[in-house]
């Protein structure tokens, strides 16, 4: 099913995608960050292999199917929020009816 997404929706999907990407590449990102810590320009040559490893991990995990998975996760969240909202509304309606019945 094709769906047009709002800017907000795409931003939320991108956040989920990036979070999953950071989880998948956590170890190599951490190694690069540790190497780059306290360095500025020298990071270019002193942390070259760590940067290559990090970029390779990101390249291998930044796949369209992983973005689709992030979109599916977002859709599940929307549906779950809708269900919870409906349950809350139904509960409030039920409570109002009970209050009317028992207050008489």
From TrEMBL:
Highest taxon listed in the record's lineage: Eukaryota
PANTHER family recorded: COX ASSEMBLY MITOCHONDRIAL PROTEIN, COX ASSEMBLY MITOCHONDRIAL PROTEIN HOMOLOG
Primary location: mitochondrion
Similarity remark: Belongs to the CMC family.
GO CC terms of this entry: mitochondrial inner membrane
Protein name: COX assembly mitochondrial protein
Localisation per UniProt entry: Mitochondrion inner membrane
Source organism (scientific name): Pneumocystis murina (strain B123) (Mouse pneumocystis pneumonia agent)
